[in-house]
Every structure is written in structure tokens, then in C-alpha cells.
Amino acid sequence: MENLFENQDIIDINIEDSVKASYLDYSMSVIIGRALPDAKDGLKPVHRRILYAMHDLNISSKSAYKKSARIVGDVIGKYHPHGDTSVYDALVRMAQDFSMRAPLVDGQGNFGSIDGDNAAAMRYTEARMTKISEEVLRDIDKDTVNFVANYDDTMKEPAVLPTRVPTLLLNGSEGIAVGMATKIPPHNLSELLDAVLHVIDNPSATADELMEFIQGPDFPIGGTIFGRRGIIDAYNTGRGRVRIRAKHHIETRGKKEIIVLDELPYQVNKSRLIELIANLAKDKQIEGISEVRDESDREGIRVVIELKKDAMSEIVLNNLYKSTPMETTFGIILLAVHNKEPKVFTLPQLLNVFLSHRKTVIIRRTIFDLEKAKARAHILEGLKIAVDNIDEVVKIIRASSNDQEAKDSLMSRFDLSIIQAQAILDMRLGRLTGLNIEKLEAEYQELLALIAELEAILKSEEKLNEIIREELTDIKDRFSTNRRTEIEDSYDEIDIEDLIPNEPMVVTITHNGYVKRVPIKSYEKQRRGGKGKVAVTTHDDDFIEKFFVSNTHDTLMFITNMGQLYWLKVYRIPEGSRTAKGKAVVNLINLRPEEKIMAIIPTPDFDESKSLAFFTRNGIVKRTNLSEFSNIRSNGVRAIVLDDLDEIVTAKITDVETQFLMIFTSLGQCIRFEVDKTREQGRSTRGVRGIKFKHDTDFVVDADAITNEEQELLTVSEKGIGKRTQVEEYRCTNRAGSGVISMKLSGKTGNVIGEVLVDDTQDLMLLTSIGKMIRVDMNTIRKAGRNTSGVIIVNVDKDDKVVSIAKCPKEDEEIEVDENGNVIRYNEDGEIIESIDLESGESTTPSNEVKKENDTPSLIDNLEENKDEEE
């Protein structure tokens, strides 16, 4: 045992180096030999071997179908060193018209479905090549591509196929290798060929130029690509993300709407989608769906989503896009193998690789045909000599004792090659008739013309390009189909503001989140001095909460409870008549399912002199310069960093006129401090303490930005108790203190639910927990001291309570446009309550005599008053 290795060389190898080398060998084997397609023919090795095996078996598009098991057996027996399952799965996918834009296999039998059904076993299905796959293999027998040894070095297989079709982009490809992946979407053949024809004349064409021909991916089952930015990125850099949505139409049945899905996003399983929608509807995660059923047939996809009577299709669709694969994202990675090296390509690079491959194939085919023609011409030259000297040739042959002697004699006498001499010996005497002699001469002249033409092709780049043009045009004429996938422009990616006139609009927002805009000119169609109501058709449980005049280029900022800020240009709001209901805001901005809008703020600009103040439930306040929100994004931006279990309560704009910030809590505390006590912070910050709670159960319910101490605040509690109190009664303190009492609470009042700045030109709207809505004229609410309970504003039932309050335009409020183009607002008595200058946006209110406090009507007397100030 000791001398076992005595005469052998022992080499020390570091195990790390050994493992590294082995892993590199394995990874390159996976990259080159299995997972990634070749940039030239667009095929992975398994697909290439399947097509070549079918070519070898002569299973063309015109031949009879052959058992899939026979094809798979040939592939794994001759070329593919892996299991039969992987080969059959690849063959099945090549036959699925919902997976491949142009199927390369014509399958007969069960080859699976878009519902995720598996194909039948290979012993039950049959297959043959399609016509387009024959174009992928055309001229393979003319030495157009290199052949390499198969896995056991007993046969040869093509390293790449001489395709006439840009298969890589036509059918796309997906694969995960070691440390890299490819995901190439399918495209439209006609668009691809037009782009290649353009590249022939413009080799340095850019991706933007090529996009004049190639609109974008074209998926087998259609769908809609939403936005072009991802396509542009992918074609210019090789990487991009596109959003794909299901294509639908709306049908009506009585008063109910029905959503019908006609096309699905690429690779979405239809049956699983239907099951998911049904479960979401059953669990009440998506409201408004009464039934989902599949009515698809041979004609195409038809998924029916029946809605409940009062459901709105746009809201349901918006929720479906967010919660189901009715909207998916396709991450494009244009990665392929070129010259045994994986590389991420741009669109121009891929088309140039295909074009270069075609040139190489045609040159090699031309050389092959030229050599074949020259060889035949060489034989014909010998035969001509024999015919011209037939008597002497016969004499030499008869005088020879064997074939070799006859060949040597002919070669010596007529200066022939061995090939020519053999051809003369093999010639039948029947060829010596006059007709056949003429055929030999004609064939020889045709060969001379062909040789001249082939040599001209090899010498001329223009002739080579002309052949490519003819071949590609022929492919386009025979195989082109219409585009199936539509591409919609996304407003987030297109600057269309310059195309839209900056006109004044009346914008209304209802409490339930319906928004619309009406052009000011709609109010100019009346006779001078006439008045028109600010009207809107709302649901019984809805009302106009905000009404303002804004230009089409102005921006609405939506702040949600999760601290996210979204933008919406006024021109993006659907224009409607004065009686139109409007459109739900959730259909206009990309809210997440759990988000709730807490504040809507209009702004004509993002001036640095303004700030946006945020107030949270846990008493945090943060002020951020408005200019930090000027970079509009479709998915919004993070406006504040929230603590766990904290959320935004409201937000207010502050400007040079803002003096104070006020915060109100559920247990009747209020703090007023100067706005400068909160310095401006960036977006990705938490903010500072605004108020300190006296009780752990307390929380912020509302806040406001105050311009002067003469303003009045209306505070309302759960039991419908409220009061008007002047701002100056709330002692100004430092930030982060406990503040003072804003309302004296008792069992008869309940907790505070909110406050509003008093505006005698507007009404107060109260909403209770059971859905009751009460409109109250603010003038009917009596003024009271700070440390009081107030008066009954509305009687609520024992088990009911007020849950929210809001200001709204007076029910009988009317507006007109005067001769100066200003918007004039009137009350029901015809008195001017506001004038809005459309150029500056400034609002002026006529000064009225201040009413005496005891002249202000009240509903009932104060429940109780307490004049003591809290120290």
C-alpha cells in the first residue's frame, strides 16, 4: 500500500480553485448549451435540435403527421443529451399558438390550453413542421452553417440554423442561466421585416428610427401595452419594463353593467384568473361583482364579469387591475448568445446580427452553388469534347483492356481530368442523339450564365443586399399577420400640456371622491346678469365638498393616510356638463388598495415661498417646501416618514400670510403655535412633535393653517354638539405642549371629531355613522367660548354618532361671469359673496357689517358653559 503511488506524479490542487473551475465549466455549459438562445437564429439548442431532427426525418409541412414520441426519440437519441420530458415540453410550446407568435410546429392532438391544461402524452400526439419553420431550415443542405459533433461524437448537428426569419424577436425567448436571464417578448413579423429592410440601407439606424417600423412587442393573445417608456428603454438599452392589460369592452343588461374580457396579458392563466376574481369578490376585497363566468370558445376568449346594480365598471376595473393579473408587468431583457458569448443587445444590434447572419448564409450558399455549377460545367466540357470526337473516343475505349486503361488513354489524348474521363465512360450511348447533344450545349450555356451571376453576387454588396430584400419581401408577403397587441400612450410619459389651452375651469369634488371640471364659458352662455346654479348630480349619500376655480394647467395634490402624495393635472380630470356626476378619483390616480385620500389641495405652481404642512394621528407635524413636490411621478412620492401605527390626518398649504398652525385632538385639546416653530424639512423625514397628549388614548382628529386671530373655528363632537370660537381665544404656546381645552366634553357631547374654519358663505355638512347627512347653515350656530361645550347642531340617535364634517357650497349658491371675466358667486338672496379674478386667482369677499353675537340665531341654548381658562 505504501508503494501504490510511488511511481506516479501527485499534483496538489487547491479545492477552491477546483470548485471554481468546475462551477465555471458548468455555468458556461448551461449558458451556451441549454438556457439561452443564439442571437443569429433565435433558438435554444433543444429547439434547434427538434427542428433539425424533423428535417432529418423529412417531416415537412406537406408530409403526414408523425408521432411526437418518434420525434422526441430521434432528438434524444441523436442530438440532445437530456431527458425526453424537456424535449417534449419544448416541442409542445413550439406548437402552442398562445405561446408563440408564429408556431414552428404544427401539432395534432391535445397540446395544452391557455387555461393551463397540460398536453397529452407524447404517444398520443402527432406533429410536423409548419411552413414558416421550413424557412428557418431552408438551404441547410448547402453548407450555409457550421456543423459540430453531437454529444457522443458519432454524428454532426448544426451549430445554428440558416433562418430567413428573425426568429429571436418574432417568437421571443425566456430562460434562466447561471447568473443571468433572458426575457425577450414576441413581435410582429411584418414590422420586424420592415425594420430589417430599413437597416439594409441604413446600417447605423438608431432604436428611435427603427421604432417607426416596430411599434413594440406583439403578443400572441393580444392585450394592451400601457405606455411606451418601457419599450423605448428596452430597445435603447436592452432592458425595460412594459405594463400589459387585458382588453375589455362593456355591455349593459338593464341597469347593470357587464365587463367582458376579450384578450388577456401574455402568459396569464385564464382559469386561475377567473378563480382569483371570484375569490376576491367572495371575500369582499373587490366590491360590486355579482358573478364571474367563462364563455370562451373556438372563436376566442370571453370572460364575463357581471356587476351589481349600483356598481361602476370603472371602479371595479381599477381594482381588478391592481389586485389581479389583468394587469401584469413584462420585464424585457434582450440577452442572447453571440459567438459563444452571452450579451445584452439593443434593438439595432439584434437586427444587425440577423442581417449579418443572412449575408453569411447567402455568401456560403452562393459559394456552394458556384462550386456545384463549376463542377457540372467541367463535366459538360469533357462530354462536349467526347461528342465532338466520338469516333476516336469509341476506338480508344474499345482498344482498352479495362476502365483504368481507358481513362488514362482519354486523359492523355484529349487532356481531360479524371472526373471528365470518368463521366465519358459513364455516358450512355443514348446521349449521342442530336437532341441530347443540343441539350448538353444548352445546359452548358445556362451553367456559364449561372456561374457569371453567382460570381457577380460574391463581388457586389448591392447584389447581395438585393437578394436579401427579395427573400424578406417574399417572407413578408406569405407570412405577415395583423398586429394583435395594442399600445396606448400613458399620460404620465407624454408632455401634452403644451397642446392644451390654459383655460379657467370650475372644479367640483364630492365627499365620496367624484371629481369633474366644467369650462367657465359654460356660464357665459346666459344673458348678461343671468345666474346659473353650481349644480352636480350626486348620489343620495354624497355632496359637493370642494368647489374652486382653477386653470387647466394647475395641479391637484392628493395626500393619503399612508403619507403618499399624488398629483393630478386639472386637464386630466374629465370634462362634464354642469349636471354631470363626475368620475371617481380612484380611476385617475394610482392609489393602493389600502390607501385613503385625506386631503385634496389645488395649486397653480410649486412656488418656494409656500410650504405643505402635514399632521399625523400621533401628533407629529412636518412642513416641507412646496417645490420639493414639483417632480411629478405616476405612482406619487413619499411625503413623510410615518411611525408604526401612525397615519396622516390632514395637510394644509402655508404661505407668507400664514401665521399659526392649530392641532385638535379627540379628547378636546388644542394647541396653537407660530408656523415658524416648525422648520422646513425634506420629503424623506419624520417631522417633529406638534402636540403632547395628556392621555394615551388621545389622538389628533384635525388641524388648520391660520392667517389671523380674527378667524373663527367651528368645532364639532360625536353627539352633534358644536360651537364657533374665535382663534384669539386659543392661547398661543410653544410647539409640543399640551395646549388648551378646545371643547368641554361630557357624556352628552362625546369626543371631538373635527373642526373647520368658519365661512358664512358656506354650509356645514355632517355625516353620521349610519349614513345620515345633515346640512347646517353656519350662521345658525352660536358663538361660544373656548372652554364650553357648545350647542346642539344636529340631533343624533342613541346608537348613532357624527363621524365626519366638511364645508360645502350653499345649496342655492349661484355663479356668473361678469363683463371683466371674473367669476361672481351669489347667495340665495342675490348678494355677492365672492369675486374670483381669473388672471391672478385672487378671491375677494365684500365686507359686511359684523353681526352682534346675540343677533346670531342659535338652535338651542348652550348645554353648559365654563369660562375658566386652563392654565
Q: What's the short version?
A:
Heterotetramer composed of ParC and ParE. With 871 residues, the protein is of the alpha+beta class.
Tell me what the structure shows.
With 871 residues, the protein is of the alpha+beta class. Helices cover 27% and strands 25% of the residues. The chain is elongated, with a radius of gyration of 41 Å.
Average of the residue pLDDT scores:
85
Fraction of helical residues = 25-40%
Q: How many β-strand stretches?
A: 45
Number of contiguous helices: 17
Strand content: 25-35%
Q: How are the SSEs placed, and which strands pair?
A:
Elements: H1 15-35, H2 45-56, E1 66-67, H3 68-78, H4 84-95, E2 105-108, E3 126-129, H5 131-137, E4 147-149, E5 156-158, H6 167-171, E6 173-176, E7 181-184, H7 189-201, H8 207-210, E8 224-226, H9 229-237, E9 239-245, E10 247-253, E11 256-263, H10 270-282, E12 289-294, E13 303-307, H11 313-323, E14 327-333, E15 335-338, E16 341-344, H12 347-388, H13 390-399, H14 403-414, H15 418-426, H16 434-459, H17 461-479, E17 486-488, E18 504-510, E19 514-519, E20 532-533, E21 544-551, E22 555-560, E23 564-569, E24 583-584, E25 597-603, E26 611-616, E27 620-625, E28 637-638, E29 648-654, E30 660-665, E31 669-674, E32 688-689, E33 700-706, E34 712-717, E35 721-726, E36 740-741, E37 752-757, E38 762-768, E39 773-777, E40 791-792, E41 802-809, E42 814-817, E43 823-826, E44 832-836, E45 843-844
Parallel strand pairs: 8-17
Antiparallel strand pairs: 1-3, 2-3, 4-5, 6-7, 8-9, 9-14, 10-11, 11-13, 12-13, 15-16, 18-19, 18-21, 19-24, 20-42, 22-23, 22-25, 23-28, 26-27, 26-29, 27-32, 30-31, 30-33, 31-36, 34-35, 34-37, 35-40, 38-39, 38-41, 42-43, 43-44, 44-45
Helix pairs in contact: 2-3, 3-4, 7-12, 7-17, 12-15, 12-16, 12-17, 13-14, 14-15, 16-17
